[in-house]
Specification:
This protein has 231 residues and is of the alpha+beta class. The chain has five helices and ten strands, in the order αααββββαββββββα.
Length: 231
């Protein structure tokens, strides 16, 4: 078991490598057909080598989603690409509705993604240990550079609203929030009821005196609406 009070060490990474190869979780057994559940890209694949299209291909974009928008944005003073997918049938496609959005910065690093889908409503959540295991497997594939210096802050349920035809529906996942002790920035992985990653964000700058993040919230529709930043 990982010690959530101490940063993960190189030995911890070795354990994660074994998990990625040899541990079969419910995510592998119960994942939806056609959807990447745990990010099966190898940890040796660098962001620069695969590009934005390669990164997107490795993410859990629902098979019935199509790309709707693509824009260049600024994150913490640097350029990034924001790509948004919506359901092919157009259901709940408006701001605040069902969507899959991903953010890739100019260095080729996946800064995060969000999967807001009504299929995530209801269903039992993973327990803390299972959420931690799934989160670490995901990071070993998509953000291995973070692993040596991560310190888990907490693991707890997290709620997100989705605007649907008959009103707002809340989807819940198990959030694994972590701090990078090397630079003080934050990251989190939220595991959904289908045991797939629902939300991932990394390199979040937090202003402690102001009690809020300063990194732009391009993956959050409420922030887009408040700031007039609709793609």
């Amino acid at each position: 078991m990982w010690n959530s009070e101490k940063p993960l060490t190189c030995a911890g990474v070795s354990v994660l490598a074994l998990l990625a190869v040899g541990v079969v979780t419910r995510a592998a057994a119960e994942g939806s057909a056609g959807t990447v559940i745990d990010g099966s890209a190898t940890a040796s694949t660098t962001p620069e080598s695969v590009g934005t299209s390669g990164i997107l291909a490795s993410l859990p974009i629902p098979p019935n989603y199509v790309q709707a928008r693509d824009a260049e944005v600024v994150v913490d003073g640097s350029s990034a690409q924001l790509v948004r997918f919506v359901r092919a049938d157009g259901r709940n496609a408006g701001l605040g509705g069902e969507h899959f959005s991903a953010l890739v910065d100019s260095s080729g690093t996946l800064r995060g993604f969000t999967r807001m889908d009504l299929a995530l409503h209801g269903g039992p959540l993973p327990d803390e240990q299972e959420a931690r295991t799934i989160a670490m497997r995901f990071l070993s594939a998509h953000a291995p550079d973070l692993l040596p210096n991560l310190q888990i802050s907490f693991i707890a349920p997290h709620h997100e609203p989705i605007v649907a035809e008959n009103g707002t529906v809340t989807v819940t996942g198990m959030k694994v929030k972590m701090r990078n002790v090397a630079d003080g920035r934050w990251a989190w992985v939220i595991v959904g009821s289908d045991l797939g990653v629902m939300v991932f964000e990394r390199d979040i700058v937090w202003a402690n005196l102001e009690g809020r993040r300063t990194t732009e919230l391009w993956l959050h529709d409420r922030w887009l609406a408040q700031n007039g930043n609709w793609l």
